């Protein structure tokens, strides 16, 4: 064997050995559901690496436990953020379920909204019957990485930090001492914190041309109707379990927006209103169509024309997000508290990156938001905004007695989906109504009913027929 071939052989052998030793073990460890015993980690190094799945992540802990008492005495506003780590079964497209891991029974987890300079008091509780420990790495924090670790079942842990930087920030489970972090995140343990700028948002300037074609500038007040859109992927096997092998190869099984594939597309009611038949689909893909799906039935997002709309967008996934709205231009893109672009067609977000998009929908119509990666579009990365009254429904809804007067968006009749509506901030315009929509456990749904959000699946059958 000549030297070159011998060298190639050696490299190949090492690669094969590596795959055997690490790859397969990793998959088993991950899928088995996180029971790696850290007390066993003093064994020899190879065995240790073997147990961890071929990779020992040597990095500081994600955050330190800080003195919540001292921060509470500073006079700053303290915001409590309480989460529980819960494994539950949740639906996926096609009538199946998957073994989800959640913060507080929903995917994504609850959104935290604070103002720059506030103290966040984050408390993570893990129920005693939970199958694994969980942690929470909040990207909005900047802390010495010391004491905080994953929380064991039956225990609670707390840390505090000052939200110093404005913007959108992901939070996610950090696994059990970082092990299984990928499984926990892709199974649903992610969410966002919105940190509003201390001086509020800037007003929006949109360049247009006037009637005679001359350049004109229109200004919109900083107050806006707001939505949150969190993109991610699922990597599931046929049994609805996380498939680490698929993740390592970037072979996702679904693209999700706020946890759901095709969650913001027309449904049965829209079919009836526009086509006179519940079964005549308007859109190419309407998997979450019927009222029997309750809070999982797809819903649309409604905005007014000539209204300042603000979108908080996070890419939680492994794949890039090429965010685009079909038929619209992103009037302003902000990251952190800095404007990155204006009047742009598409903006790219890498993994764990975010932006705030400000825009105005000028004309009545239906506008699809997409990840303009075609593989993402056709696996669920698409949803619809409906601006104004493009279908002329106002007179029909008034005739039916559902509305008393013409309204500037269908949100006044149907509400906007709860999982796309962030908590209110100082520059938020209130949504006319909010309907219960999202990847929620039944407990979360009943809390939302108590909070006055609309269960459309109960309300719609009681409405008079629309002529
Ligand atoms: Cu976890």
Classified in CATH, the superfamily of the largest domain is Cupredoxins -  blue copper proteins
Class of the largest domain in CATH? Mainly Beta
Low-confidence stretches: 1-43, 53-65
State the oligomer.
Answer: single chain
Look at the structure and give the mean pLDDT.
86
CATH topology of the largest domain: Immunoglobulin-like
* Intertermini distance: 84 Å
State which percent range the strand residues make up. 25-35%
Which ions, cofactors or small ligands are bound in this entry? copper (II) ion
Shape: globular
Number of DSSP-assigned strands: 26
Amount of helix: 10-25%
Total number of distinct structural domains = 3
Radius of gyration: 24 Å
**Largest sheet features:** 7 strands, mixed
Output the number of helix runs.
Answer: 11
CATH architecture heading of the largest domain: Sandwich
Class from secondary-structure proportions: alpha+beta
Annotation keywords:
Immunoglobulin-like, binds copper (II) ion, alpha+beta, seven-stranded mixed beta sheet, 11 helices, globular, 467 residues, disordered N terminus, 26 strands, single chain, five-stranded mixed beta sheet
Helix-strand blueprint:
Elements: H1 3-31, H2 45-52, H3 68-72, E1 78-92, E2 96-103, E3 106-107, E4 112-115, E5 119-125, E6 137-138, E7 156-162, E8 167-172, H4 181-186, E9 190-196, E10 204-209, E11 215-220, E12 224-234, H5 244-248, E13 254-257, H6 268-275, E14 301-303, E15 308-315, E16 321-325, E17 330-335, E18 338-344, E19 346-349, E20 353-360, E21 365-371, H7 374-378, E22 382-387, H8 394-399, H9 411-414, E23 416-417, E24 428-429, E25 434-435, E26 439-440, H10 442-450, H11 456-459
Parallel strand pairs: 1-5, 4-9, 12-15, 12-24, 14-22, 23-25
Antiparallel strand pairs: 1-2, 3-26, 5-7, 6-8, 8-9, 10-11, 12-13, 15-20, 16-19, 16-21, 17-18, 17-20, 21-22
Bound molecules: copper (II) ion.
